[in-house]
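Journal club side-thread
Mid-discussion, someone asked how the predicted structure for our own chain would compare to the paper's figures. Pasting it here so we can look after the session.
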Amino acid sequence: MAFNSNLRNGRRKLKSEINVVPYIDVMLVLLIIFMAVPPAQNPSEIKLPSAERSTQPPDDYINISVKSNAQLQIGINGKNSSAPEDMSSRTAVIERLRAMHAEHPDYPVMISGDRESKYDDVIQMISEAKKMGINRVGLATK
């Protein structure tokens, strides 16, 4: 009969491994909890800041209209003097804005974005107006 050498000496060999099964069970329970609990805030909901009406809106201004179908129009005092153009031809609208601003350097620029228009299109127009050195750029609201 062959005896185990560990038992013959009276000592048992200790296991030096970590049993990870309970940790996996805990991790799976936590994963299920995080998947089942809804987030505290709806990520698609945006809380925009409110703005008060300015004390005296400008009488004369250059307006840029950003439409929902990615078209731009430019005009003076709310009257569009150009045909709608695609956002791909934004450089033509910017050149027209530069010419209008050269004719009327004291006119502020009002940018009106349609409710369904892309936020990025409106921001790009504000950025382009600021790059031209137009200090008075505003957003039109109802």
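Post-session note: Residues 21-36 form the longest helix (16 residues).
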